[in-house]
Amino acid sequence: MIFQNPFKSRLPETTEALSGRANTIFAGDPHCVLGTPTIGPFPAHLQKIVFGLGCFWGAERLFWAIDGVYSTSVGYAGGKTPNATYEEVCSGQTGHSEVVLVVFDPQIVDLSKLLKVFWEAHDPTQGYRQGNDIGTQYRSVIYADDAVQLAVVQESATAYGQALKKAGNDDITTEIRLAPTFYYAEDYHQQYLHKVPNGYCGLKGTGVACVI
């Protein structure tokens, strides 16, 4: 496949990245579905993790429906451009992935449950795309909040990678690391599929079960 835009097939160098802006582009409204705050500080007993699994509209809906999830927000992370806009992210010149910030109560929902939803809801072997959505912004990522989370995430990736290989799939390409800065996306993207119930959702898993 020939990519017309070079930044659809590779991440930008620092000198190629868009400059962005100093101020956030999100007003900080409460969650449309859960009614909870979307901007911290959050209650101390809660934990955070960031997932990227393609277009963030459908991805966010997956997680806000889980019992024990306190709040979700969509945004951009993993790149070089501060407070990027959606159009800038789509250009490929920010290096960001479309992601979902998940704030959850570990006493109600275990991280392993969230990871199971993540792995099974998309194809983590596709590199810089997810189905028909092509570009670096659609790459699979997990950004852990601390070293303890990171170890659990890496263990799950190893286990699911083995299950995928056994089923004849390619290697996992998911980017896994400690969380970089999360930049909130514009208001209209937040809880988009609640506001637009028939809106686009391109999520499609491999059909391979994740047993953690």
The CATH H-level homologous superfamily: Peptide methionine sulphoxide reductase MsrA
So what's the CATH class? Alpha Beta
Q: Count the strands? A: 8
**Widest sheet, order of strands:** 7-6-1-3-2-8
Helix and strand composition category: alpha+beta
Mean pLDDT: 96
What value does the Rg take, in angstroms? 16 Å
Low-confidence stretches: none
Descriptive notes:
With 212 residues, this protein is of the alpha+beta class. The chain has one domain: Peptide Methionine Sulfoxide Reductase, Chain A, CATH 3.30.1060.10. The protein is built from five helices and eight strands. The protein is globular, with a radius of gyration of 16 Å.
Features of the shown structure:
single chain, 212 residues, alpha+beta, Peptide Methionine Sulfoxide Reductase, Chain A, 6-stranded mixed β-sheet, two-stranded antiparallel sheet, 23% helix
Annotate the secondary structure layout.
Layout: E1 47-53, H1 56-64, E2 69-77, H2 86-90, E3 97-104, H3 111-121, E4 129-130, E5 133-134, E6 140-144, H4 147-166, E7 175-178, E8 183-184, H5 192-195
Parallel strand pairs: 6-7
Antiparallel strand pairs: 1-3, 1-6, 2-3, 2-8, 4-5
Put the structure in a nutshell:
The protein is an alpha+beta fold and about 210 residues long. The chain is about 25% helix and about 20% strand. A 6-stranded mixed beta sheet has the order 7-6-1-3-2-8, covered by helices on one side. The protein has a two-stranded antiparallel sheet with strand order 4-5.
